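Re: the 350-residue chain
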Amino acid sequence: MSDTEHRSFKILKFVLRLLCAVVIIGVLIWKSREQLNSCLHAFDYKLVLPAILFYAAHHAVCAWRWQQLAKLQNFDIKFKEALSLTMQGTFFSLILPGGAIGGDVVKMGLLAKRQKKGSRVEGMFTVFIDRVIGMAALFGLTIVLLLLFMDKLPQLRIPGVEISLFQLKIFAYLILALCTLGIAAAIGIFFHRSFEKIPFIKAMMDWVDRRFSNAVTRMTTAADLYAQAPGQLIVLTLASVFFVHLLVVVPMIFLLSGTGFPMTGANLLLLATAVNLGNIAGLIPLAPGGIGLRDLTVIAILSSGGTASGSGETAQLLMTGVMIFVSLLGGVYFILDPGVKNTTIDRNEP
């Protein structure tokens, strides 16, 4: 496949993913258009501002987490630099075909341009580990919330889809299994030396090392530095649970409150479960930024908990608007980024 054909394929793929998001959102709006119209007219729009602020705050925590992970690799990254690159990665996650992974790739590229020669692999590895810690926190929180939510499965209804309780339970256990495997894979990265004892894996790593200038050796050495600081990794994972993934629930509290939905203890558990399962669904690369599948999942779970018709749809669709708005702000960081001319991330060798 030529470069032109490859670019055309990527563009087509992005257009199809965008179309998928538009179709899902369009169906949700059409099916609840009367209730949505009523809720939007009665909505308390002053609650949108705190929703935006809290969602933006979760990106600031993500930047801080990456900064701390970079310090463990002896990189000197200022918080404002970490925030700038994090927001730029978020922006490209929205507009690039690769979604969150595409955003991380761009973030790695932007970081590489700021680093001194000879430390780029280690620097880019910090972005990868940041994603690993975030995903492990999301999977762990989802396991806890889903187990607490299991007794509500009989009430779950997915708009336009006929599904039995048995199928829902199978799906729930599948999510639990995948989350458990995800956590195990994350932990396994820090115990890679055990896997290197397997001849096939060792041979494959050596082959990749020869092809890519000892990149595997440098990354495994970087992983060893993280393995020597388990306490800090645990703290960063717990911080991700409470100040990244649960913090994302807070904007939805404001938006649901704006529709008149009462925020009782049971409803908070319902909302936290819906948002986190929605974020899991958003990982499926069918639409840019997880838009569409996330909305469908959150609305379905909120409906199962007895939210008034139109309330869940209104809050989630406004939340999607908040996410897009904050992500687009990352484009401002990209435009104003001084680049390598005025910023350099140094690595202080131990």
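The chain has one domain: 12-337.
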